[in-house]
Write a structure and sequence with these properties.
With 266 residues, the protein is mainly β. It contains 1 helix and 21 strands.
Length: 266
């Protein structure tokens, strides 16, 4: 028989942690798993939809748990029963940041490692198919946000606050070399392109620019928004952004992160 293959979308119910699935051409929601993980705040899928990363708070309301689950394979012609079980393991408590490779084959995560005398931030890569973990980064500075645009590059940006100089670095996970890309930008937030050659970045005034990592040239883009409101095309030649129609006065990006200010975008 001729078979039509259509992309499927998977997503996690925040209240229960159950995984649901629908097709891209027609919305027919089906429950894929019955494993209950209450109050999931963040969920990411990898390994062709067969791995899931779920992040939630423990009952104490402050400790972050990060669960890596393996989903059962789907076979052509078999019916989804909705009773599949998600099995997996936990990462260390209080993982601070998670980034997924665009091809969804692996992830990078940051967590605090506290010894008797040191408090370091540890960065580790994880391959979803093999579950292999490799430590590629360590820093006594603990406030980082990460991005994993391609297998040869991880970016690390200091957590932003209005008026505070921010810095961005590129890490090669193979050699573990760390190179500064941008620096001394107040309220710096960033979104690198998949090929790593371009970086969208914003500052405390929400001025929006693009930085060329090869020529070190920066171009102002003439709109005001945050890089977090943008997504790159796979070929790194197009970027789609949500741009606020109007911006109230305030300290950015803090006011937006805190929910004090919200935007109507176009």
């Amino acid at each position: 028989k001729l078979t039509e293959f259509v992309p499927a979308l998977r997503y996690v119910g925040r209240a229960t942690g159950n995984i649901y699935q629908t097709f891209a051409d027609k919305i027919i929601e089906q429950r894929f798993s019955s494993t209950v993980i209450p109050k999931v705040y963040e969920a990411s899928f990898g390994n062709k939809g067969e791995s899931v990363v779920m992040r939630y708070l423990k009952v104490d309301g402050k400790t972050i748990e990060t669960f890596i689950g393996t989903l059962p394979k789907e076979y052509l012609g078999t019916e989804i029963t909705g009773n599949a079980e998600v099995k997996g393991s936990f990462l260390p408590e209080d993982v601070k940041d998670v980034s997924i490779l665009p091809d969804a084959s692996g992830m990078f995560y940051l967590f605090n490692s506290t010894s008797a005398s040191l408090d370091n931030m540890i960065g580790t890569t994880l391959n979803f198919a093999t579950n292999k973990k490799v430590q590629v980064f360590v820093s006594p500075f603990t406030e980082w946000t990460s991005s994993y645009p391609n297998s040869k590059m991880i970016t690390l940006t200091t957590k932003p606050s209005s008026g505070i100089p921010g810095y961005m670095y590129a890490l090669d996970p193979s050699s573990k070399n760390l190179v500064k890309i941008l620096g001394n930008v107040p309220g710096l937030t960033t979104t690198p392109s998949p090929n790593g050659k371009l970086v969208l970045y914003g500052d405390s005034s929400l001025a929006f620019s693009i930085f060329h990592t090869d020529t070190k040239v920066s171009n102002l883009l003439g709109v005001k928004t945050l890089p977090e409101k943008c997504v790159w095309s796979k070929s790194s030649d197009v970027v789609y952004c949500a741009v606020p129609k109007y911006i109230n006065g305030g300290e950015y990006p803090d006011a937006w992160y805190q929910g004090v200010e919200s935007f109507s975008d176009q």
